[in-house]
Protein backbone atom coordinates (compact mmCIF):
# COMPACT_ATOMS: atom_id res chain seq x y z
CA UNK A 1 0.00 0.00 0.00
CA UNK A 2 1.24 3.44 -0.96
CA UNK A 3 0.40 6.59 1.00
CA UNK A 4 1.76 10.12 1.02
CA UNK A 5 3.24 11.35 4.30
CA UNK A 6 5.07 9.71 7.17
CA UNK A 7 2.18 7.50 8.31
CA UNK A 8 -0.33 5.29 6.52
CA UNK A 9 -3.75 5.50 8.12
CA UNK A 10 -5.34 3.28 5.47
CA UNK A 11 -2.76 0.56 6.11
CA UNK A 12 -3.53 0.64 9.84
CA UNK A 13 -7.25 0.27 9.13
CA UNK A 14 -6.69 -2.66 6.76
CA UNK A 15 -4.33 -4.40 9.17
CA UNK A 16 -6.93 -4.12 11.94
CA UNK A 17 -9.25 -6.16 9.70
CA UNK A 18 -6.67 -8.91 9.19
CA UNK A 19 -5.53 -7.82 5.72
CA UNK A 20 -1.87 -8.36 4.86
CA UNK A 21 -0.38 -5.01 3.85
CA UNK A 22 2.97 -4.04 2.35
CA UNK A 23 3.51 -0.31 2.81
CA UNK A 24 5.30 2.10 0.49
CA UNK A 25 5.65 5.56 2.03
CA UNK A 26 7.98 7.53 -0.21
CA UNK A 27 6.26 10.83 -0.85
CA UNK A 28 5.07 9.98 -4.35
CA UNK A 29 5.08 6.86 -6.49
CA UNK A 30 7.43 8.43 -9.02
CA UNK A 31 10.12 8.72 -6.34
CA UNK A 32 10.12 4.95 -5.85
CA UNK A 33 9.65 3.84 -9.47
CA UNK A 34 12.98 2.08 -9.66
CA UNK A 35 12.86 0.93 -6.05
CA UNK A 36 10.14 0.01 -3.58
CA UNK A 37 7.11 0.23 -5.88
CA UNK A 38 8.48 -1.90 -8.71
CA UNK A 39 9.94 -4.35 -6.21
CA UNK A 40 6.61 -4.66 -4.39
CA UNK A 41 4.70 -5.08 -7.65
CA UNK A 42 7.05 -7.81 -8.87
CA UNK A 43 6.77 -9.61 -5.52
CA UNK A 44 2.98 -9.45 -5.73
CA UNK A 45 2.98 -10.92 -9.24
CA UNK A 46 5.45 -13.67 -8.42
CA UNK A 47 3.98 -14.62 -5.06
CA UNK A 48 0.24 -14.58 -5.71
CA UNK A 49 -0.10 -14.82 -9.52
CA UNK A 50 -3.22 -12.63 -9.56
CA UNK A 51 -5.49 -12.38 -12.59
CA UNK A 52 -5.96 -8.64 -12.06
CA UNK A 53 -4.17 -5.91 -10.11
CA UNK A 54 -5.73 -2.53 -9.36
CA UNK A 55 -3.18 0.20 -8.64
CA UNK A 56 -4.59 3.22 -6.82
CA UNK A 57 -1.99 5.76 -5.68
CA UNK A 58 -2.69 8.75 -3.48
CA UNK A 59 -4.02 11.96 -5.01
CA UNK A 60 -0.48 13.25 -5.45
CA UNK A 61 0.70 10.40 -7.66
CA UNK A 62 0.91 10.72 -11.45
CA UNK A 63 -0.76 8.29 -13.80
CA UNK A 64 2.11 8.69 -16.28
CA UNK A 65 4.54 7.57 -13.57
CA UNK A 66 2.48 4.46 -12.88
CA UNK A 67 2.57 3.63 -16.58
CA UNK A 68 6.32 4.09 -16.55
CA UNK A 69 6.63 1.77 -13.55
CA UNK A 70 4.53 -0.92 -15.26
CA UNK A 71 6.86 -0.71 -18.26
CA UNK A 72 9.92 -1.39 -16.11
CA UNK A 73 11.92 -4.37 -17.50
CA UNK A 74 11.24 -6.25 -14.25
CA UNK A 75 7.46 -5.89 -14.66
CA UNK A 76 7.02 -5.66 -18.42
CA UNK A 77 7.25 -9.44 -19.07
CA UNK A 78 4.80 -10.25 -16.27
CA UNK A 79 1.84 -7.89 -16.64
CA UNK A 80 0.04 -5.77 -19.18
CA UNK A 81 -1.83 -2.53 -18.48
CA UNK A 82 -5.45 -2.98 -19.53
CA UNK A 83 -7.12 0.25 -18.38
CA UNK A 84 -6.20 3.73 -17.16
CA UNK A 85 -9.07 5.15 -15.13
CA UNK A 86 -9.47 8.50 -13.39
CA UNK A 87 -12.29 9.52 -11.06
CA UNK A 88 -13.10 13.24 -11.01
CA UNK A 89 -15.10 14.85 -8.21
CA UNK A 90 -17.44 17.33 -9.90
CA UNK A 91 -17.75 19.35 -6.69
CA UNK A 92 -14.02 19.87 -6.25
CA UNK A 93 -12.37 19.44 -9.66
CA UNK A 94 -11.75 23.17 -10.17
CA UNK A 95 -10.22 23.43 -6.70
CA UNK A 96 -8.10 20.34 -7.37
CA UNK A 97 -6.88 21.82 -10.65
CA UNK A 98 -5.90 25.04 -8.86
CA UNK A 99 -4.15 23.27 -5.98
CA UNK A 100 -2.86 19.98 -7.43
CA UNK A 101 -1.90 21.54 -10.77
CA UNK A 102 0.25 19.21 -12.89
CA UNK A 103 -0.67 16.20 -10.72
CA UNK A 104 -4.38 16.63 -11.43
CA UNK A 105 -3.77 17.41 -15.10
CA UNK A 106 -1.58 14.32 -15.52
CA UNK A 107 -4.28 12.05 -14.14
CA UNK A 108 -6.81 13.36 -16.66
CA UNK A 109 -4.49 13.66 -19.66
CA UNK A 110 -3.35 10.02 -19.42
CA UNK A 111 -6.72 8.39 -18.71
CA UNK A 112 -8.65 6.18 -21.14
CA UNK A 113 -11.79 6.36 -19.01
CA UNK A 114 -12.98 9.11 -16.69
CA UNK A 115 -15.72 8.56 -14.13
CA UNK A 116 -17.46 11.58 -12.61
CA UNK A 117 -18.36 11.28 -8.95
CA UNK A 118 -20.98 13.18 -6.88
CA UNK A 119 -23.00 13.93 -10.00
CA UNK A 120 -26.26 13.15 -8.22
CA UNK A 121 -25.43 15.49 -5.33
CA UNK A 122 -24.16 18.33 -7.54
CA UNK A 123 -25.88 18.09 -10.95
CA UNK A 124 -25.26 21.77 -11.62
CA UNK A 125 -21.50 21.21 -11.64
CA UNK A 126 -21.44 18.34 -14.14
CA UNK A 127 -21.20 20.43 -17.31
CA UNK A 128 -18.38 22.58 -15.92
CA UNK A 129 -16.44 19.44 -14.96
CA UNK A 130 -16.98 17.99 -18.42
CA UNK A 131 -15.71 21.15 -20.11
CA UNK A 132 -12.61 21.18 -17.88
CA UNK A 133 -11.88 17.56 -18.79
CA UNK A 134 -12.41 18.13 -22.53
CA UNK A 135 -9.69 20.79 -22.53
CA UNK A 136 -7.19 18.36 -20.98
CA UNK A 137 -8.27 15.14 -22.70
CA UNK A 138 -10.75 15.13 -25.56
CA UNK A 139 -10.24 11.45 -26.45
CA UNK A 140 -11.23 9.72 -23.19
CA UNK A 141 -14.62 8.19 -22.51
CA UNK A 142 -16.37 10.20 -19.79
CA UNK A 143 -19.22 8.84 -17.65
CA UNK A 144 -21.57 10.93 -15.52
CA UNK A 145 -24.43 8.51 -14.92
CA UNK A 146 -24.82 6.80 -11.51
CA UNK A 147 -22.05 4.29 -10.92
CA UNK A 148 -24.59 1.54 -10.29
CA UNK A 149 -25.61 1.88 -13.96
CA UNK A 150 -22.08 1.59 -15.37
CA UNK A 151 -20.91 -1.87 -16.35
CA UNK A 152 -17.40 -3.24 -16.08
CA UNK A 153 -17.38 -3.66 -19.87
CA UNK A 154 -18.03 0.06 -20.36
CA UNK A 155 -15.14 0.98 -18.07
CA UNK A 156 -12.65 -1.55 -19.44
CA UNK A 157 -13.56 -1.16 -23.13
CA UNK A 158 -14.55 2.50 -23.49
CA UNK A 159 -13.80 2.67 -27.21
CA UNK A 160 -16.06 -0.27 -27.98
CA UNK A 161 -18.80 0.87 -25.65
CA UNK A 162 -18.48 4.62 -25.61
CA UNK A 163 -21.20 6.51 -23.71
CA UNK A 164 -23.80 8.55 -25.51
CA UNK A 165 -23.22 12.25 -26.20
CA UNK A 166 -23.55 14.29 -23.01
CA UNK A 167 -22.01 11.79 -20.64
CA UNK A 168 -19.75 13.60 -18.27
CA UNK A 169 -17.00 13.38 -15.51
CA UNK A 170 -13.95 13.41 -10.73
CA UNK A 171 -10.41 12.58 -8.20
CA UNK A 172 -8.86 9.24 -7.73
CA UNK A 173 -7.05 7.39 -10.45
CA UNK A 174 -5.33 4.20 -11.28
CA UNK A 175 -4.38 1.44 -13.66
CA UNK A 176 -5.60 -2.08 -14.05
CA UNK A 177 -3.11 -4.79 -14.98
CA UNK A 178 -3.62 -8.28 -16.34
CA UNK A 179 -1.06 -10.76 -15.01
CA UNK A 180 0.22 -13.33 -17.46
CA UNK A 181 3.24 -15.44 -18.25
CA UNK A 182 6.23 -14.06 -20.09
CA UNK A 183 5.37 -16.01 -23.26
CA UNK A 184 1.92 -14.42 -23.40
CA UNK A 185 3.22 -10.90 -23.03
CA UNK A 186 1.73 -8.47 -25.54
CA UNK A 187 3.41 -5.25 -24.47
CA UNK A 188 2.66 -2.46 -22.02
CA UNK A 189 2.28 1.26 -21.71
CA UNK A 190 4.99 3.85 -21.47
CA UNK A 191 5.15 7.59 -21.17
CA UNK A 192 7.76 10.04 -22.42
CA UNK A 193 6.43 12.95 -20.40
CA UNK A 194 8.98 14.78 -18.28
CA UNK A 195 8.82 14.00 -14.61
CA UNK A 196 8.19 17.63 -13.56
CA UNK A 197 7.82 18.34 -9.87
CA UNK A 198 7.75 15.74 -7.13
CA UNK A 199 5.00 15.79 -4.53
CA UNK A 200 7.41 17.07 -1.88
CA UNK A 201 8.17 20.09 -4.08
CA UNK A 202 4.53 21.08 -4.27
CA UNK A 203 2.73 19.85 -1.14
CA UNK A 204 3.25 20.13 2.59
CA UNK A 205 2.52 17.24 4.94
CA UNK A 206 2.18 17.68 8.68
CA UNK A 207 1.74 14.74 11.05
CA UNK A 208 0.36 15.57 14.47
CA UNK A 209 0.78 13.02 17.25
CA UNK A 210 -1.65 13.44 20.13
CA UNK A 211 -2.61 11.40 23.19
CA UNK A 212 -5.70 13.53 23.70
CA UNK A 213 -9.12 11.83 23.95
CA UNK A 214 -11.69 13.42 21.64
CA UNK A 215 -15.45 13.29 21.45
CA UNK A 216 -16.92 13.33 17.95
CA UNK A 217 -18.30 16.83 18.50
CA UNK A 218 -14.97 18.08 19.83
CA UNK A 219 -13.13 16.69 16.81
CA UNK A 220 -15.68 18.21 14.44
CA UNK A 221 -15.38 21.62 16.07
CA UNK A 222 -11.59 21.56 15.67
CA UNK A 223 -11.88 20.64 11.99
CA UNK A 224 -14.38 23.45 11.40
CA UNK A 225 -12.04 25.85 13.20
CA UNK A 226 -9.25 24.62 10.93
CA UNK A 227 -11.39 25.43 7.87
CA UNK A 228 -12.05 28.94 9.13
CA UNK A 229 -8.65 29.90 10.52
CA UNK A 230 -5.84 27.75 9.08
CA UNK A 231 -3.41 30.07 7.30
CA UNK A 232 -2.66 27.55 4.52
CA UNK A 233 -4.92 25.24 2.51
CA UNK A 234 -5.67 21.75 3.84
CA UNK A 235 -6.54 19.52 0.87
CA UNK A 236 -6.73 16.21 2.74
CA UNK A 237 -6.61 15.02 6.33
CA UNK A 238 -6.88 11.56 7.80
CA UNK A 239 -6.01 9.95 11.06
CA UNK A 240 -6.78 7.64 13.97
CA UNK A 241 -7.19 9.12 17.44
CA UNK A 242 -8.50 8.12 20.85
CA UNK A 243 -12.18 8.58 21.50
CA UNK A 244 -14.14 8.32 24.73
CA UNK A 245 -15.15 4.72 23.96
CA UNK A 246 -12.30 3.49 21.79
CA UNK A 247 -10.62 4.81 18.66
CA UNK A 248 -11.95 6.97 15.85
CA UNK A 249 -11.00 7.27 12.18
CA UNK A 250 -11.11 10.76 10.69
CA UNK A 251 -11.34 11.32 6.92
CA UNK A 252 -11.49 14.91 5.66
CA UNK A 253 -11.77 16.72 2.34
CA UNK A 254 -12.73 20.41 2.11
CA UNK A 255 -16.42 20.53 2.96
CA UNK A 256 -16.65 16.80 3.66
CA UNK A 257 -15.86 15.29 7.07
CA UNK A 258 -16.39 11.68 8.19
CA UNK A 259 -15.63 10.40 11.69
CA UNK A 260 -16.26 6.74 12.45
CA UNK A 261 -15.34 4.29 15.19
CA UNK A 262 -12.58 1.85 14.27
CA UNK A 263 -10.69 -1.14 15.64
CA UNK A 264 -7.28 0.20 14.66
CA UNK A 265 -5.32 2.00 17.37
CA UNK A 266 -3.61 5.29 16.72
CA UNK A 267 -2.55 8.66 18.02
CA UNK A 268 -1.96 10.65 14.84
CA UNK A 269 -3.52 12.97 12.28
CA UNK A 270 -1.90 13.56 8.89
CA UNK A 271 -2.58 16.75 6.90
CA UNK A 272 -1.70 17.37 3.25
CA UNK A 273 -1.98 20.79 1.65
CA UNK A 274 -0.25 24.00 0.68
CA UNK A 275 1.55 26.43 3.01
CA UNK A 276 0.52 24.54 6.15
CA UNK A 277 1.43 25.93 9.56
CA UNK A 278 2.78 22.99 11.57
CA UNK A 279 2.65 24.71 14.96
CA UNK A 280 -0.87 25.94 14.39
CA UNK A 281 -2.05 22.39 13.63
CA UNK A 282 -0.21 20.99 16.66
CA UNK A 283 -1.87 23.57 18.94
CA UNK A 284 -5.31 23.01 17.43
CA UNK A 285 -5.28 19.23 17.96
CA UNK A 286 -3.36 19.10 21.22
CA UNK A 287 -0.28 17.62 19.60
CA UNK A 288 2.95 16.65 21.28
Biggest β-sheet: count, sense, barrel? Answer: 6 strands, mixed
Span between N and C termini?
Answer: 27 Å
Provide the helix percentage: 25-40%
| Tertiary shape | globular
β-strand amount: 25-35%
Total number of β-strand segments? 11
How would you sum up this structure in a few lines?
By secondary structure, this protein is α/β, with parallel strands linked by helices. It is built from ten helices and eleven strands.
Report on this structure.
The protein is of the alpha/beta class and 288 residues long. It has 2 domains: 9-198, no CATH class; 203-284, Hypothetical Protein Yjia, Chain: A,domain 2. 30% of the residues lie in helices and 25% in strands. The chain has 10 helices and 11 strands. The strands form 2 sheets. Strands 6, 7, 8, 9, 10 and 11 form a 6-stranded mixed beta sheet that branches. A 5-stranded mixed beta sheet has the order 1-5-2-3-4, with helices on one face. Strand 3, helix 6 (126-136) and strand 4 form a beta-alpha-beta unit. The longest helix is centred in the last third of the chain and has 14 residues, at 216-229. 35% of the residues are buried.
